[in-house]
Amino acid sequence: MINILLKLAAFTSLALGLIGTLLPVLPTTPFLILAAALSCKSSPKLRRWLLEHPVFGATIRDYLQTRSISTSTLRKALLMLWLCLLISILLVQKIWIAFFLLVTGLLVSIYLLRLNRH
């Protein structure tokens, strides 16, 4: 039963990650990393596919093995994060949502900047 729930959570995370490639407000990489972690024992086939993926595989492997990120990936992540947050703030135009987005962006940026780089 636990295996089924883990597999379901892994595929849900994968789906959210793939949707995140199209929607700027939904992050991609964290969901793919979560899918890889959840699929460790529940779906080795999915985990292997994620870790060997030509676009996301290296980033996922680096994070899972060494909690590190490449400098170029960090730059891209920060650029996309703040660009999407700025667009969202301009579109929504509600002060409490803008505040929430700014705080979230700041916390995510701090987390990313604290990761080891290679």
> How many structural domains are formed by the residues?
2
Q: Got a strand count?
A: 2
Overall geometric form: globular
Measured between the Cα atoms of the first and last residue, the distance is 39 Å
pLDDT < 50 runs, ≥5 residues: none
Number of helices: 6
Percent range of helical residues: over 70%
Rg from alpha-carbon coordinates = 15 Å
Mean of residue pLDDT values: 87
Q: What does this protein structure show overall?
A:
This protein is mainly alpha-helical. It folds into 2 domains: 66 residues, no CATH class; 49 residues. It is built from 6 helices and 2 strands. It is globular.
Key phrases:
single chain, 118 residues, mainly alpha, 2 domains, two-stranded parallel ribbon, 6 helices, 3% strand, globular
Q: What is this entry, summarized?
A:
α2 packs across α4. The protein contains six helices and two strands, in the order ααααβααβ. With 118 residues, the protein is mostly helical.
How do the helices and strands line up, and which of them pair or pack?
Layout: H1 2-20, H2 29-42, H3 44-51, H4 57-66, E1 68-69, H5 71-92, H6 95-114, E2 116-117
Parallel strand pairs: 1-2
Helix pairs in contact: 1-2, 2-3, 2-4, 5-6
